[in-house]
Amino acid sequence: MTTELYPRERLGLVREATARAGLGAVLLTPGPDLRYVTGYDAKQLERLTCLVVPADADPFLVVPRLELPAARESRAGSLDVELVPWDETDDPYALVARRLPGGLDRVGLADRMWAVMALRFRAALPGAEQVAAGGVLRELRMRKSAAEVAALREAGAAIDRVHRRVPGFLKAGRTEREVGRDIADAITAEGHATVDFVIVGSGPNGANPHAELSDRVIAPGEPVVVDIGGTMPSGYCSDSTRNYCVGEPPAEYRAYYAVLEEAQRASCEAVRPGVTPEAVDAAARDVIAAAGYGEHFFHRTGHGIGLESHEEPYIVEGNREPLEAGMAFSVEPGIYPGAHGARIEDIVVCTDDGYEPMNVTGRGLVVVG
Q1: What is the pLDDT of residues 191-239, one digit of tens each?
Q2: How far apart are CA 274 and CA 304, in angstroms?
Q3: Separation CA 229–CA 346 (nearest Å)
Q4: Can you name the residues that pair with 61 across neighbouring β-strands?
Q5: Burial of 80 (0-12, 13-18, 19+ CB in 10 A)
Q6: Which residues fall within 8 angstroms of residue 52, CB to CB, at 6 or more apart?
Q7: Which of helix, strand or coil describes residue 201?
Q8: What is the DSSP letter of 175?
Q9: How far apart are CA 111 and CA 226, in angstroms?
Q10: SS3 157
Q11: Rounded CA gap, 145 and 158, in Å?
């Protein structure tokens, strides 16, 4: 088994998947799919960069001549991929069309391709139906290799280190925005290349799962939800939520927090090969509903993670595709009564006989001060 994060054989697997999907080619512009296949974290520009993977011909990478040195120096430069530069007065869409076999019926476009580029390809390949290429790559991207799991483990350890520093940032009288700035600095200091998001939801803002940082002042005795994540130099993401209280929390908060801990633990323990994502969702939801808080848990239990912080598989009712070893996703039930809220989130990887958590900090409420 390869231990490389971006193995050479991945390109061949994509070509085989393209043929199985009945596509003549897939066209991948900068974004997670291109990085997954080649390891090239290309800039997203108005100038076209596009990896072309035909089902029955050799792949090639079209790049602006200005970006040719970067492409050569990237992982893509060491693959069996022809680099095809284009100049400012060239039409790169016509260039791609000329090099593809004639009479293509269907082509797959990267899910994150800009609409203006998709429209240019529609004009350049008038007889070809356009479909999303994500369906071609999903089976590969959902099942993480040993190297990818190691990258997620590293990301999890980095965000755990940030959570261990959060109590030092939380004080009554500080604003969410002030605390958020300190957390963002810690995310990069602990090894992330970029900060993807910082949620510091105090009091009623904690009942909004996607609360934005605000100038709200944190008051004594208020619970605070801290949901944070970033992208590592490897390209793989972290995402973890822990809960804090500045001083003694309200009694009703402690009551439902105990329910939430039980629900998150039950959901994690449900993870193993063959179990459906909706069953993992139900494991948490049933505990919360039985305790009388069902109406206060109104989002899915989790989402996949890898080169994107949200990707497949989604842990939600209706997803009956059985889990397999290597699938990585969050387990993050929440309870949001209104005056405050709580969510516990870990990234887990399905193993051959259960699961491995990527986050190992305590899930219990942390009382600060």
Answers
A1: 999 999 999 999 999 999 999 999 999 999 999 999 999 999 999 999 9
A2: 17
A3: 11
A4: 51, 83
A5: exposed
A6: 25, 26, 27, 28, 59, 60, 61, 62, 96, 99, 100
A7: strand
A8: B
A9: 30
A10: helix
A11: 20
